[in-house]
Amino acid sequence: MPSSRPDRIRKLLADLVAFDTVSDRTNLPLIAHIESYLAAFGIKGERITDTTGQKASLWVTIGPEDRPGLVLSGHTDVVPVVGQDWSHDPFRLIERDGKLYGRGTTDMKGFVAVCLAMVPEMLEAKLATPIHLAISYDEEIGCVGVRPMLGEVAKKRIIPLGAFIGEPTEMKVIIGHKGKHGVRATFRGLARHSSIAPDGVNAIEYAAELIVEIRRRAVALAAVRASDSLYDVPHSTLLTSIVHGGAALNIVPDTCTVDFECRGIGITESREVTDAIVAWAKAELEPAMKKQHPECGIDFEEILDYPALDTAADAAIVTLAKSLAGRNDHAKVAFGTEASLFASIADIPSVVIGPGSIAQAHTPDEFVEMAELEKCAGFVERLIAHCAKD
Fold first, then answer.
1. Residue ranges of the Peptidase M20 dimerisation domain (predicted)?
2. Cis before residue 149, ω within 30 degrees of 0?
3. 72: part of which helix (H) or strand (E)?
4. What is the dihedral of CA 9, 322, 340, 262, to 10 degrees?
C-alpha cells in the first residue's frame, strides 16, 4: 500500500473503479476486496447479504463498540455506461490534469476510497468515539441495500450519534433533499385490427390522458413556490419519464406502461401527489375503459420510494459537519440520497457531504478532482481528531 495519503487514495479508488458494480450485477467481489483490505488492519466488518446472495452491504466499526459513534456512508453501485461516449475504458482509472476519470469516481467511490485510505489514521488515533463505515449496494435503483443494513443497525443496543453521507456536494453541508415516489401504470386495453378501431380499447390513448393530467398537475406544483429558498428548484416536481406501448401500426394497442415520479419538498408530499394521480385515474379513466370492455383497466405499482431529508439547521450533526468542513453555510439539494433513510429507519440524524460535483455524476468521462478528494480527507482527518477526544 502506498505510504502517502494521496497515493493511498488513488490506489484505492483505482481498485474500486475496476469493479464493474452497475446495479444489475453482483457487488460481492468489491465487498470481498474491502474486507480483505480491512483484515490487513485487523478489522472485521459485518456483512448484510440480500435474499439473492449476490449483493451485500458492509457495516464496520473502528473504535469502542460500547459507545455511540459517527457514520461515514457510501454506496458501491454505479449507473450503466451503455450508450455513453467514453474516451477510455470507464472501469479503469485515468488521471489527467488533476482529475481522476472513471465510472463512479464522483458518485461515489471517491468518497469510499477516502474513508478507506484514512483507516490507518483512525486506528492510530485510538478513538474514544467510534467511527462506523456503512457501505451499501443498489442506491442508484431506489436506495435498496441501505434499508436492510439500517434495519440491523436499528436493532443494536447503541445507535450512532449521526451520519455523514458522502454524495458529491463539493464538500458543502447539505441538510435537506427532496423525497421521491415513482409509480408504474400499466394500461390493459383490447387489441383489434385498426380498420375496426372502435371495437378495441386503445391503451395508448388512455395512457395519453394520464400523461396530460400529470403534466397539468406538474404545472400547478411549479406555481406553488416553497418559502424554503435553500432549494435550487423551490417547488415539488412531477413528470412522466418512460412510456412503452403498441405492437404494430395496424393494431389497436392493448397495453401501455407509463412510469412517472414526484420529487416532493415535504416529507410525505411525493407519495401524496402520486396517490392523488392514481385515485384520479381510477375514478376518471378506468371506468371508461371498463365500459368499453369489462376486462380492461389500469394496474399501478410502486417502483421507487424514499422520503425527503429535513435535518434542522441547528442540529448537533450539522454544527459538527460545518466545523469539520471549515464553513458556516448549509444548503439543500433536489437529488435524493440514503441520508433520509438513516433518519427515518434508524433515527440517525444525517447530513450529506462529499467530494466532487453532482454535475459529473452519471455522465460519460465522469471525474472527480484530486483536490476534492484531499479536501474530503481533511474532513475525515478532523473527524478522527474529534473522535479521539475523550
1. 175-287
2. no
3. strand 70-75
4. -100
What phi, psi does 275 have (nearest 5°)? -60, -40
pLDDT tens string 5-48: 999 999 999 999 999 999 999 999 999 999 999 999 999 999 99
Asked if residue 3 has pLDDT above 90, the reply is no
Give the global pTM: 0.90
pLDDT at position 113 over 70: yes
Task: Summarize the confidence of residues 333-341 as an average pLDDT.
Answer: 93
* All three cell numbers of 232: 435550487
Task: Look up residue 155 and give its three cell numbers.
Answer: 436493532
CA distance 323 to 225: 32
The number of residues in the chain equals 390
Please write down the long-range contacts of 4-10, taking CB distance under 8 Å and 24 or more positions apart.
5/117, 5/118, 5/374, 5/377, 6/370, 6/373, 6/374, 8/117, 9/113, 9/114, 9/117, 9/370, 9/373, 9/374, 9/377, 10/93, 10/95, 10/100, 10/370
What's the Cα-to-Cα distance from 22 to each of 84, 104, 362, rounded to whole Å? 14, 10, 11
Whether 2 shows a pLDDT value over 90: the answer reads no
Predicted pLDDT of residue 1: 56
Under a CB-based contact definition with an 8 Å cutoff, are residues 289 and 201 in contact? yes
Pick the CATH number of 179-306 from 3.40.50.1000, 3.30.1490.20, 3.20.20.70, 3.30.70.360: 3.30.70.360
